[in-house]
Design goal:
Layout: E1 4-5, H1 6-11, H2 16-25, E2 28-32, E3 35-38, H3 39-43, H4 47-61, E4 66-68, H5 70-73, E5 89-93, E6 100-102, E7 105-108, E8 117-120, E9 123-126, H6 128-138, H7 141-153, H8 159-170, H9 176-185, H10 193-204, E10 211-218, E11 221-230, E12 235-239, H11 242-247, H12 255-273, E13 276-280, H13 282-285, H14 288-309
Parallel strand pairs: 5-7, 12-13
Antiparallel strand pairs: 1-3, 2-3, 4-5, 6-7, 8-9, 10-11, 11-12
Helix pairs in contact: 6-7, 7-9, 7-10
Length: 310
């Protein structure tokens, strides 16, 4: 989305009065102080997109040499911002001087190594590895895992390289206890935000660590790849988000067609393994206590069936 700074608008004939009039009319929208965008285009954007535009505007307006960092780097790296605050733009100074906070912008100090900065869409942002560790210093463990698993799954870095970078120079950053825990819980096989949140909930509720992307075969034929499996307990868990159904949708199919085919896959897995399935949605994640109770009840039910069979 094009951004116009006040000086640029004045240079093409606008005045402060005409800018105020355009703002009232809705033809112009104020992104942040001194930065504007087309009004209708701006109001039609999602919160994450508006945050990315505000971040870019703050970078353009900065009077010091900075790069987009922390949460502000994520939209430009095509990474999720789930669970992270979008009320503040994050910039990191290149001159290693102390940071500061003002007007919705937080400048961070610190040392940027040569490979800590990448150029994306014509602007400088921190690298995926640096972004993960920065997010860990300001966000929750769950939000950090969402970011870390995304980059790991897409091959932007490896767990080993991430751990080496952390131990090498960031171990004493703020939030290091959260970072240590996040590094123990990361899983490159996890594919989505919803699956990461489900994985974190299972850890927090003291369930055994599941096997992610568990493969089920019929002879040599791969029948299914399960989101999470608890083989010893005879249970597997699937996260049902719209993204998943869109991903597996074939040409000409409706979502309903995919759901029917998914049900057939579930039945086949049950036949081959004797396990039972728990399906989880975004709404279930909003009620974690109830979800944990449902899973415990299912595990107990399978255990009773196994005892009765013996």
């Amino acid at each position: 989305m094009p951004i116009s700074l006040r000086a640029e608008l004045l240079a093409i004939g606008h005045t402060d009065r005409s800018i105020r009039h355009a703002l009232r009319a809705g033809s112009l929208a104020r992104i942040r102080h001194g930065a504007y965008a087309d009004g209708p285009t701006w109001t039609g954007q999602r919160e994450e997109t508006q945050y990315a535009v505000r971040s870019r505007a703050a970078l353009l307006q900065s009077r010091t040499d900075v790069v987009l960092s922390h949460t502000s780097a994520l939209p430009f790296l095509d990474a999720p911002v789930w669970g992270l605050g979008l009320d503040e733009v994050h910039l990191t100074r290149r001159d290693e001087r102390s940071g500061r906070r003002e007007s919705g912008v937080r400048q961070h100090g610190g040392v940027l190594l040569d490979d800590d900065v990448v150029r994306v869409h014509g602007i400088d942002v921190v690298s995926p590895i640096r972004a993960i560790l920065e997010v860990a210093s300001i966000g929750s463990v769950e939000a950090t895992l969402v970011v870390a698993n995304h980059f790991l799954h897409h091959g932007e870095c490896t767990v080993e390289v991430l751990e080496d970078r952390y131990r090498g120079s960031m171990e004493r950053w703020p939030g290091s206890l959260r970072t240590d825990l996040a590094l123990r819980l990361v899983d490159p096989r996890i594919e989505s935000v919803g699956e990461t949140r489900l994985s974190y909930l299972l850890w927090r509720e003291h369930f055994p660590r599941p096997v992610s992307q568990f493969e089920v075969y019929d002879g040599e034929d791969l029948v299914a790849q399960l989101d999470f499996a608890l083989p010893e307990l005879g249970v597997w868990i699937e996260f049902d988000g719209r993204v998943k159904y869109e991903k597996y949708r074939r040409p000409g199919e409706s979502i309903a067609d995919v759901v029917v085919r998914e049900k057939g896959r579930e039945n086949r897995v049950c036949e081959l393994t004797g396990w039972r399935c728990l399906r989880v949605t975004w709404a279930d994640l909003a009620r974690p206590d109830l979800l944990a109770r449902r899973l415990r009840d299912l595990i107990d039910s399978v255990a009773r069936q196994r005892r009765a069979a013996r």
